[in-house]
Write a structure and sequence with these properties.
It contains four helices and no strands. The chain is mainly α and 57 residues long.
Amino acid sequence: MWWIENQFDYVIRLDQMAADVHLSKSYAYCIFHQETGSSITEHVKARRLKQDYHSLR
């Protein structure tokens, strides 16, 4: 999660995230999904929508 928060303003790619945290792409995806119950893409979309919502207020 910390990696996504630090990279939030950029294009987030699974291969880059996995390389930065020294995991394989498939293992990084599995761990993320187990911990959050969603895919990385779903999480990032929801997080960005939440930020946009708060920006409009």
